Every structure is written in structure tokens, then in C-alpha cells.
Amino acid sequence: MESTMAWAIAEEVASENTPIASMTAPFPRRRFRGGFHTSICDIFRDPNSVTDCCALACCGILSNDRSLYLLTGERPPPLWRRVLMLFIVPASLIAAMDYFATDVTVVDDDGQSQTLKVPSGRLFLLLLSYVIAIVCLGFAKRRSTRKQIMTKLYEERSRELGEVVDARQLQSFIERHNLDTMRAHCCWSFCYAHDDVFIDETGAITRQCHMEDDDGIPEEDFCTRLWSCLSRMFWCCGCWCQCFGICALAQEEREVNRLTNNEEPKIDYLTFQPYSEYYPTIKYLRENQIKTPWRHFVALSELSNNLLKHVAVVLVMLLLVALSNIDSTFTWENLIVLLLTLGQAFFIEYLVHWRWNLFDLSLDSVIKYFASGFFLATPLAIIFESIMSTVAGFVFLVALSLVIASDSGLADELSADQKKGIKDLAVNHPAVFIFIQFVNAFFVAAIVEEMMKYFTYRMVVTPDLIPPQGRTSSTSNIGEGGRLHSCSVGARSTGSAVTVAMVSVALGFACCENLVYIFVYSPPSLDLELSTLLARSCFPVHPLCAAIQSIGVCKRDIEGDKRHGLGRIIFPAILLHGTFDFVLMLATYFQQVENIKEENDDDGTPAASRDEEQAGDAVSQLPVLICGLVLVITGYAYYVIQSRAQTRRLVTMDNVAIGQNSQLV
Known about the structure:
2 domains, transmembrane, two-stranded antiparallel ribbon, mainly alpha, 665 residues, transmembrane helix, 66% helix, 22 helices, 6 strands, PrsW, single chain
């Protein structure tokens, strides 16, 4: 009777939340909404989960493509078609809006007139309609993939129960979860109801929404707690916060990996080329210590070859643009600056990888890590920094309102002359501006960029470094205790491979960031572009912070120190990066204050006085450069000390492993 009542209660819950496996199933399984074996709330619950990181990249496009390919064998559209649909068509519409824009003359309060371009309303509506159509098609495709996964789950459950799959029951099951599918991939809502109800081995309904380690203790690190904090912002409506369906995509990829027995990574993203097609050649080069460059290029995977080919095509197109009069703002001088920017990153990569660690990490993996830092980490950082900047702006407004409330004269001055009022505010209330510079340096720049570099490193899965999650085969890279090892090499070599991989991601990120600062933020001047490149090249903060991060990653993944979660891994890098940015921002602020006090910020300054001012600015920047250099040297010294200590520990691990193997022989 009790078991019947328990099953009745379970069925009642299942009708509202999730189909739950029968108590007579061969082995108990947790069942969440839609029949999934992991919860949609489980994203970032497991610090080792690579699929959760991949769900962030490109709004989950790569993750959804891989899930669909593993499930059905369907390949995504070719790259040229995606570039055409997602970039060329919208860019053409934007260019047409600018070309057919109407010039409108506007007179301001001072009687000065300025001409504004008003874009065509029809073209704007066409662009908006196109974007909405692309978004809707994307979400429809994702819902279709989710329904196919649910169908596979229903069929699997029926086989476990020894039942025949009934088409009408399957259709009823899919329809019962239509609302859940809509919420999982919904473009007008960021919420999804918690789905943490399941039945344990005894048939009792329990609630649990976290991963547990072997000791039954929840595995949580900085990322887990931070994500939980963000998701619980919607506690009042009992919903789980997600954006662009990334939580659902991570859940689906975890499920597809289980259904298709791909929990151990076997194929590349994008090209879906199996590791077995190209990695044996890479392994042969490593085992025989072959240093011939062309042999390493011949051994590249299809994905790396495609990346190099596309880069070559883009450079040729830029060369043609520079040598022609198509775009007057991009000349051969700009092309040289661009090549120097790329060359600076490639030169450091050459030293770090080819010169010092050639056989610790393959050239194929280096290309993938660098490209991921360039194309994935930078856009993600821009998106999250924009969000954090909005929050920082709100904090600044709150602080500003408190200052205005305590200074009535400032409020009157701001209402009379806003520009002069802001200048007086900067001079008379430095604490407000110093505080906001601190927020921008540490919370907007340092935390976001260091986390994005770490997550991008976790996104890339190569046969050189396969993470602990899901390794089962005899060729596993996992040592005792679930530790990460590189194929056919020891712990020390694996540690070097991790460092090279993380530095490669940082170099790709820094290269893209340098291009943005040089060609977007700097005025179109060759001298300014070269000075910006030189200044940013003298302080390689990004690769240095990545190398510091690699110390913590090796402690966790190679040495097996579970205490080293994400917080401890990225904290030293955040401290160095944030302090460096904070010093630069403070210097800029104090320089602006001095200019305000001396009233030298007016364009009417005579030429001779302006030259003297520029010379004075150069002298005043000298202490800042010295501080930046001291910080970089301090960070490098910290890395060297920690790296040498870790190398000794890894060598000891290798010696112990060699001793154990000799005893077995």
C-alpha cells in the first residue's frame, strides 16, 4: 500500500514537473523536466564541466551544433553561409542605411548648427525584421533539437522498463512538456522554473540541485557560488535566471554526451573531425622529438587548417584595401601597424611554445587556444564588461546623488552649467571618482577579463589536454585521484602544456584587444597607433596573468588539490591586473584634474604652450610607467617563484610514478 501511494504521488508530481522512471526500472535514475538526467539548474555546478563553458560561446551556437551532430549526424550550415547570413547581410543593410541617410540640420541652444544623418526608416525596419527573423529561426531550431533529445530519452526509458515505444504516448509526452521547451529556449523571457524534483532509490520524492563529490560534500567553488547568486536574483518568482538559453544548452549537451557515449571528448568542435584522424601524427612527432616546422604544419587538424586559411584570406583582402582607394581610413601604414600588432603576439607565442615548450603542447592546440582567445574571449569580455559598466554607472549615480545632496551649491552649478559643474566635482570631490575608478579597474575590467580568459581555456578541448570530466578509456589522461595528465608525458610536461595553453588564450585576447585600442579607440594617426602599440607591448599583463592562473589550474588538475577552486585560481591574477589598471586610471584622473586646475584643457591654447604642455604630460607620465613596470616585474617574480616550487613538486610526482612502474616491472 505504501509503495502504491508513493508511486501515485510520484505520478502526480511527474504530470506537473517531470516524467520519473518506474520503481521497477533496472537501476534508479533521476528524472528532471523533460526526462533529463541533469537539471537545467546544474550549469557550473561541476567546476570541471567543459560543456557548461561551451554553452556561453557564440550564444551557444557551437554547443547546439555539436549536440545536433552527435544526435542525428546533421552538420551545421557551411561557414560562408553563416558569415553571409549573420554578418554580411546585416552589415550591408547598415551600410545602405548610412548611404541613403537624410542630412538634417539642427541648431542647438548656443545658435550653432550641426548636420545629423537620419537613417532611412524603411531600411531600419527591414534590418529589425531581419534580425528578429534570424533570432526566431535560431530559437525554433534549438527547440527542435531539445524535442529530439526528449524523444531519445523517452525511448531509452521505455527500453529500461521493457515497454514498446508508443507513438501516441510519445507525442503526449512531448506535448506535456511544450511549455518547458518554450521556456528553455525563449527569446522574451530569461527565467525557467526550478526543476529539482526527482525520485531517489527508495522512491521518495527529494529535492536537490547540486553536484556532490565522492564524499557526499557539495562541490562548490567561486564560480558555483557566483552563478548561484546571480540566478537567485529571481527568487521572488521561484524561477531560474538564464540568458539566450545557455543553461538549457549546457543541459542538452550533457545529456547528448551521455546518450551517444561521448562523455570522453572524441571530436573537434565546428569540423567534428575525430581526434583519431590527426592526433596519431602529432603524437609521433612528440615521441620522436621532430622539430621540422613543416612536419608540424602538415599534422594540423582540419579546424586549425581552416583557421589559418581564413586568416590568410582576410590579410590578403586587407592588403588589397590598403593598396587601393576603397577606404581612405585604412592605408598601407595602417596595414603595417596591424601586422606589427599580430607579429608582437606571434613572437611571444613563438618564444613560449616553439622555443621553450615545443613538445609539451602541439602546434595544433596552440592555434586553437589562440584563436579561441581572439574570437571567443574578446566578444564575451565586451558583453560582460558592458553589463558591469552599466552596474558601475548606476553605482556612480548613487554616489553622485549623495554628494549633491550634501552640497547644495554643486546642484545649482550642475543645473546652470553641466560641464563646469562636472569639472568642479572632479576637483573638489576626488573620493567619488577614485571609488568609481577602483570599481572599473577591479570589477569591470580585471574580474571580467580574467574570468573570460579562464572560461575560454576551459572551452577548448584538445587531445593534448583532456579535462578530468568523463574520462573512462584506458588511454585516459587522468592519473590517480582524477588528476589531469597529457598523453604519453609526465606531470611536469603537462604543467608546461597548461601554462602554454592559458598564455595562448591570453595572447589571442590581448592581440584582439590591442587591435581595438589601436584602430577604434585611438584617433586615426600613425604616431598615436604606433605609440599605443608600443605602450601595450611593453606591459604584457594579459599573458602574465594567464601564466599566474596556470599555477592554480595545475594545483587543482594535476596535483589534485581540491581546495584550489576558481576563486583561488584567478585571485592573484585579478589582484595584479586590477592594480595595474587602477594605477593607470588614477594617473589619468589626476592628470585631468591638473589640466582643469591650470585651465589647459581648452583648444584655444597657443601652439608653443601646447608643446610645453605635451612635454609636461610626458614627464608626468614617467612615474606611472615606472609603477606599471614595477607591477609587471613583481607579477613576473611571483610567477617564477611559484612556478619553480610547483615544478619541483611535479618532478617529484614523476619520480614517484617512475618508481612505481619500475616496481611493477
